[in-house]
Structure formats: structure tokens, C-alpha cells
């Protein structure tokens, strides 16, 4: 019993849905196209047939279609070349007012002649249209060539654009832009003459989609190109500058439209994409020729750190390559368990002095001065505690008569104050000038890397967007 009730419920639901779906289908068909009105107000079968036959007679591809109508049902028969012709006949029949249903019984011949004749006729019509309108096409072509040629002449004025633009790269960019704009302007003028601007709109829409896809594909290349333009305008460095770009150090060789070329201190070529250079951190050692060198040295914990600092400053000032201004300085870095760490800093001119050589010579000079003044450079010291051995412990602490004053830990570094033994006199301390002469080394700049970079830069035909005429950012 319950099964029958459910079955009747399903049937009722389907019955209720059918009218709704039928109304939706009728509304959709009514909105597809406006009906074709009959010449008379009556809508008999004969009038529908006569109307359709008259329409088909005017269309060559449907001339062999016959029409039979009864009670508003239209039956189409006869022959057409292909499916597209049959579908066209059905659409026309459906638009006739009074047609209730259209049955397609048309035979498709699919013959070569029937299918090629329309194409041949359209081709002949197109050739005839072109032959009649060739003067207009010639004028449009001449106008496009003239506009493009004028744009090419303007873009080729190299001296003028080099005078206007800040560097050759921007000048070439302006010239190329003018050429592209002139070609597009010529095409637009030609299409306007031919009254075919709609074709340009369709082509522009397709080109926009293609351009979007290509833009995603060459995003990195476009980014590098834009960065090249910005770097050539802003000039953050010049050729032969010693720079550090994102922890990559070298001498600048050139700036191209894609990358920045560095000669590393090892003599290797380093190519950095301009996008990374533009967004990166740039340290330029050449912009300010004065550079500070600094280092640390330790002295014994029992030594006077102020005296040691003064001795180190005296040694630094005696060096010829150390600048008087800015002044040299010394300071206490930290006090350790067994030593005192001192820091020293001084300034050199990188145009006359190699930084690494100068720093090495300065460290050697200060170290020699401290040792000559009696300061002890510390070594690791370990304190040992012995429980239950008082005599040994006192001896180690310097108690009693064991050991000379010079051997006691508290008197380290003061051996020169003790009386000389067996007539040996302590060595006389050297002056800072003598120490400077004794540690004198060659601190002239190393020009090997710059020489190699200059040889590379002198190669003819290489692109370089850097210019000495532009101010450095």
C-alpha cells in the first residue's frame, strides 16, 4: 500500500513539473528570433507553404527544398548540399508565423560540386571587389608606408635623441618607441581609409590576450629591462668603482641592458641581473676614497691599558700612509680573565694606499711597538688550585724566597726594572719612527684587477649604459 502511494506521488510530481518545463521551453523558443509576418491575416497551411517556397526560391542553396504543410506541421524535403544548408532551411521555417512544428526530411547530397560552388562564388566576389577597389587599397597602403617612413626618419635622428636623452640606452629606447608608434599609426590610418576599424578592434582584443600570456612568460626579462632603464637613469655607480652588491664584491666593468658585469678580486667575471642590482644593497668603496681600518690586539691583564693605547697610537701616527684627519683612535674593547683587548682604528686614502696591505702593516707596527715598550701579548693562563699542599701552594703564589722578582706572575712585564745580571744591560726602547722604518712595507694600490677590467671595457662594440657625465646617485 505504501509503495503505491509513493508511486502516485512521483507521478503527480512529474505531472506538475511538465507544464513548468513546457512553459520555460516555449519562452526560450519565443525569444530566439522574431516571427516572419504573413502577407495576409489568415494563417492557413497553404499560405505557410507558399511563403516558405517563395523564400527558398530566392536562396540558391535552398532552391531544391520542397515544403509540405498540414495542420501547421511543416515537413521539409528535397536536397541540399550539406548539413548547414538543411539547418538554415529549418530555422527559416520555424520563424514563419503559424508553423507549429518543423520536420527535417531533407536529403544531404554532399557532392563536391554543390559544396565547392559557393566557395568559388565567394572567392570570385572577393576578387571582383578587390579589383574594383584596388585604388583605395593602394592609397591605404601608401598612407601606412608614408607614416611608418616618417616615424623611422624621426627615430633615426641619433644625435638629437642622444642630446635629449641622458645616455645612449634611453636614446635607443626612445627611437624604438617612435618606430613602433609610427607603424601602429600607419596601420590605423590604412584601416580607417578602408573603413575596417572593426577588424582592428578584433585584432587588438586577440593581441591583448596574447600579450598577457607572453607577459607572464617573460616577466623576468621585462623586470630586468625596466631595472636597466632605472639604473641607467639613477647611476648608482660608475665604471671602475669598487663595489659590493648583495655580498658580491668586485670592480664594475659595465652595465648592460640585462646585467651588471663585475670583475671580482680574483679576476673572474661576475654577471648580476639588473633586477637584483636595482633591488639590492650596494656598498661603494670608491665614492669616498677615505676608508677606516680597524683591528684588535690584547695585552696582559697586569699592564696599563692607557699606556698601551698611547703606544699603539704613536706607532700608527708614525706610518706615512695613515691620514692625520680623520684622527686615529684607540679604545678598550673588553677586559678578559687574563688579558685586556684594545681596539685601534685609523684612516687611509684608497687612491694611494691598498686597504688590506695598510691594515696588515698597521697591525705589525702596533704589535712591534707594544712588545718594544715592554707590554706582553697575552697567552692562555690556567690557574691550578692544590688543596692540602700549603708549601707548594705558597711557592706557586710567590711566597718565601723561591723565584726571582722577575719570575713572579705579578711582576711579569717588569723584568727591565730589575737589576741587570752579569753586566747585561736591557735593550734600549726604539722610537716610533724607528719601528715604522723597521716594519715598512709596500702599501701601494693593487691595480691588477682594475687593469683587467679596463681591458675588458675597451673592447669595441660592447654595450655600456654607464656615463661619467651623469651624477652618481
Name some characteristics of this structure.
Histidine-containing Protein, Chain: A, 14 helices, single chain, elongated, alpha+beta, four-stranded mixed β-sheet, 473 residues, Alpha-Beta Plaits
Structure explained in plain terms:
There is one protein chain. This protein has 473 residues and is an alpha+beta fold. Helices cover 49% and strands 16% of the residues. The strands form three sheets. The chain has a five-stranded antiparallel β-sheet with strand order 8-7-6-5-9, sandwiched between helices. Strands 1, 2, 3 and 4 form a four-stranded mixed β-sheet that branches. Helix 4 (112-155) packs across helix 6, helix 5 (158-164) packs across helix 6 (168-193) and helix 10 crosses helix 11 (355-372).
Secondary structure: elements and pairs:
Layout: H1 2-32, H2 45-57, E1 65-70, E2 73-80, H3 83-95, E3 101-104, E4 107-108, H4 112-155, H5 158-164, H6 168-193, H7 197-217, H8 219-234, E5 242-245, E6 248-255, E7 259-263, E8 269-273, H9 274-279, E9 282-284, E10 290-300, H10 305-317, E11 329-335, E12 339-349, H11 355-372, H12 390-396, H13 432-438, H14 448-457
Parallel strand pairs: 2-3, 2-4
Antiparallel strand pairs: 1-2, 5-6, 5-9, 6-7, 7-8, 10-12, 11-12
Helix pairs in contact: 4-6, 5-6, 10-11
Amino acid at each position: 500500500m505504501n509503495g503505491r502511494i509513493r508511486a502516485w506521488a512521483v507521478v503527480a510530481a512529474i505531472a506538475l513539473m511538465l507544464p513548468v518545463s513546457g512553459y520555460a521551453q516555449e519562452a526560450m523558443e519565443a525569444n530566439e528570433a522574431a516571427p516572419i509576418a504573413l502577407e495576409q491575416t489568415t494563417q492557413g497551411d497553404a499560405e505557410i507553404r507558399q511563403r516558405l517556397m517563395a523564400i527558398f526560391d530566392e536562396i540558391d542553396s535552398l532552391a531544391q527544398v520542397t515544403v509540405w504543410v498540414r495542420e501547421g506541421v511543416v515537413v521539409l524535403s528535397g536536397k541540399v548540399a550539406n548539413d548547414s544548408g538543411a539547418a538554415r532551411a529549418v530555422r527559416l521555417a520555424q520563424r514563419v508565423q503559424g508553423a507549429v512544428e518543423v520536420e527535417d526530411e531533407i536529403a544531404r547530397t554532399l557532392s563536391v560540386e554543390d559544396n565547392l560552388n559557393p566557395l568559388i562564388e565567394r572567392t570570385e566576389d572577393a576578387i571582383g571587389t578587390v579589383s574594383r577597389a584596388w585604388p583605395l587599397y593602394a592609397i591605404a597602403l601608401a598612407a601606412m608606408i608614408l607614416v611608418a617612413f616618417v616615424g623611422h626618419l624621426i627615430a633615426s635622428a641619433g644625435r638629437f635623441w642622444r642630446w635629449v636623452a641622458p645616455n645612449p640606452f634611453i636614446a635607443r629606447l626612445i627611437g624604438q618607441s617612435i618606430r613602433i608608434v609610427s607603424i601602429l599609426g600607419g596601420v590605423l590610418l590604412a584601416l580607417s581609409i578602408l573603413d575596417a576599424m572593426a577588424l582592428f578592434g578584433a585584432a587588438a582584443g586577440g593581441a591583448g590576450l596574447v600579450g598577457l600570456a607572453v607577459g607572464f612568460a617573460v616577466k623576468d626579462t621585462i623586470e630586468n629591462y625596466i631595472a636597466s632603464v632605472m639604473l641607467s637613469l639613477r647611476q648608482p655607480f660608475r665604471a671602475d668603482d669598487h663595489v659590493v652588491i648583495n655580498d658580491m664584491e668586485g670592480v664594475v666593468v659595465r652595465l648592460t641592458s640585462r646585467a651588471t658585469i663585475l670583475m671580482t678580486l680574483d679576476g673572474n667575471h661576475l654577471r648580476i641581473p639588473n633586477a637584483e642590482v636595482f633591488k639590492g644593497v650596494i656598498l661603494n668603496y670608491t665614492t669616498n676614497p677615505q676608508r677606516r681600518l680597524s683591528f684588535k690586539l690584547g695585552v696582559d691583564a697586569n699592564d696599563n691599558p692607557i699606556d698601551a693605547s698611547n703606544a699603539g697610537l704613536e706607532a700608527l701616527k708614525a706610518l706615512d700612509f695613515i691620514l692625520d684627519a680623520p684622527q686615529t683612535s684607540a679604545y678598550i674593547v673588553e677586559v678578559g680573565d687574563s688579558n685586556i683587548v684594545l681596539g685601534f682604528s685609523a684612516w687611509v686614502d684608497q687612491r694611494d694606499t691598498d686597504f688590506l696591505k695598510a691594515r696588515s702593516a698597521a697591525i705589525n707596527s702596533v704589535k712591534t711597538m707594544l712588545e718594544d715598550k715592554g707590554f706582553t701579548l697575552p697567552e692562555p693562563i690556567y690557574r691550578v688550585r692544590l688543596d692540602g699542599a700549603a708549601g707548594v701552594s705558597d711557592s706557586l703564589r710567590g711566597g718565601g724566597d723561591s723565584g726571582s722578582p722577575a719570575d713572579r706572575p705579578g711582576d711579569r712585564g717588569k723584568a727591565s726594572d730589575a737589576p741587570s745580571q752579569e753586566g747585561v744591560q736591557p735593550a734600549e726602547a726604539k722610537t716610533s719612527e724607528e719601528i715604522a722604518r723597521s716594519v715598512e712595507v709596500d702599501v701601494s694600490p693593487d691595480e691588477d684587477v682594475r687593469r683587467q677590467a679596463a681591458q675588458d671595457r675597451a673592447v669595441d662594440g660592447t654595450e655600456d649604459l654607464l656615463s661619467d657625465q651623469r651624477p652618481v646617485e
